[in-house]
Amino acid sequence: MDRKILSDSRRQSVIWPRVLTYLVLTIIALLWVTPIYFSFLTAFKDMHDYANQAFYQLPARFAFFTNIAQVFKQYKFDDHIISSIFYMVGAGLLCIIFSCLAAYGIVRLKPRGAFLIFMIIYSGTIFPFQMYLIPLFKFYNNVGLYNTRLGMILVFTAITIPFSLFVYRGFFVTIPREIEDAAKIDGSGPFRTFLLIFVPQATAPTAVVMLFQWSWIWNDLLFGMVLTRSNNVRPIMVALASMSGIGGCSITLQMTGVILTSIPTIILFILLKKYFIEGISGTTSLK
Amino acid sequence: MKERSIYAIAGYVATLPALLLVVILLLFPMLQNLYYSFTSWDALTNPVWVGLENYKELFSDPNFLLSFRNTIIWVIATLVFPVFGGLLIASFIRDLKGEEIFKSIIFFPLAISFVSTGIIWINMFASNSGVLNGLLSLLSGRVIKVQWLAEAPRNTYSMIVAWTWQQTGTNMVLFLMGLTSIPRDPVEAALIDGANKWQTFRFVTVPMLRPITTVVIAQALVNSFKTFDLIYVITRGGPYRSTETLAVTMYRESFTMFRLGYGAAISVVLSFIIILISGFYVRKQMGKEQLYY
Fold this sequence. Notes:
The structure holds two protein chains of two kinds. In chain A, α7 packs antiparallel against α10, α10 (203-219) packs antiparallel against α13 (251-271) and α10 (203-219) packs across α14. Chain A is built from 14 helices and no strands. By secondary structure, chain A is mainly alpha-helical. Chain A is 77% helix and 0% strand. Chain A has helices at 2-43, 47-52, 64-75, 77-109, 114-122, 130-143, 149-172, 177-185, 190-201, 203-219, 222-227, 236-242, 251-271, 273-282. Chain A has two domains: 2-66, no CATH class; 73-282, MetI-like fold, CATH 1.10.3720.10. The relative contact order of chain A is 0.12. Chain A is globular. Chain B is mainly α. Chain B has two domains: 1-28; 37-116 and 156-292, Orthogonal Bundle (MetI-like fold). Chain B is 74% helix and 1% strand. Chain B has 13 helices and two strands. Chain B starts with a helix and ends with a helix. At the A-B interface, α1, α4, α5, α6 and α7 of A face α1, α3, α4, α5 and α6 of B.
């Protein structure tokens, strides 16, 4: 009732602010789209067109595919992409297995000191990465993990565990105890119960973990720069970053690199979009 | 009893891999790093204990002080643009026809990396054939060649534009979530009582958004203190170290100049600030939970 009266009496005065709102929002949206539009436009040009045309003109020759070939050849994108996929799969799997197991142990098996164990692992999210870099650099050099794929997988796993543990812990708390007790009575041991009852139900938290950790691993620059040196170990973002700045390449190739390397995370976000909110709100980790 | 002990042992086994990895690769290094911050160390020889020397040097080092100032600029600008901007956009697009489209557009940059964002904005800011100077020239009819990235402090402000482009989306989404959870009645009551839109927003909506605002601000503060990738990609901290922030200075001192003890000290200062903020946030959260339960 009230709502109707309100909207009727205010209808006249509401139309103009509405139009204004749309106008302002459209301008903002245009500002947001502009950099993306020009990224594509630049990536589609060769250096000749880029240097001789106005910035808004469409390319005379469509050079995107030549640019892609050039980027792969000059910057060994295939090596870097394979390495990064390797890290996503390896560290992603290890992180999911270890943190899922640990969450089950902490929430359901509850050994003495379970909360302390949780706090110790979770404290890994508090410190900025800069706090680990120097000792890791030294440690990796000493034990021969520097510039190895195994080393990268281990560090990515360690970094991603605390947040993932938090997500799984929050989820396992909500699974009713009765199911578990029934399994126990049927003679199922702790790890059998875990595999048969907990793992199959954990799709949602696993999706959250995958979205956040895979895109984080793919996008990581810092650890790749500090802990690796050679082309076949360095992750993709280090290669992309090396294209800019002094000694870098033409902006047309840089933009091509940007588009190529953005595809995986964009697909990931589209596929797992509904888990994004869950991830940032449910956990609000200070990561 | 026997069954319980089996479960307890299984519990330790289950947590062990995660615990070991985190302790060996994160927590132990963290303590080592604290130790290194009290040493002088060039990576070739062994670290030499120098007590508080590094920390004393920090506060007389013009590079560090500039870096600290830049970091503070980043933090304040983050609160003003991506955070407050995100709140404004969220409250405008809410319930609007086309909410989804606007939301997706503002949110999109979040799906790409900082490195990519950096390069996208290099293309925008380039002084000779950059898009921004091109657009400004078109609009004004004169040839405009602003050096967006060469002169301090303009280069820092330029990069903050890129940062805003990428970060506004997260805050907007969080605020939208908060807005959805607010009951409508108080807002409508205020409107009926004759409050205008701004007053209602300021005195009804904003206070009720408190819980989500705490989260957003804490997250934004921590992230802006840690800014690294974007600056590294766009300017490498230059020219003449004029755009460095704490994280960039730490990287440069440690892995370009190999003053590892000094670099460690910078990372400790950075951690100290971040833990202070996180601690404040956790205490606020705890306080609130006590209120509710």
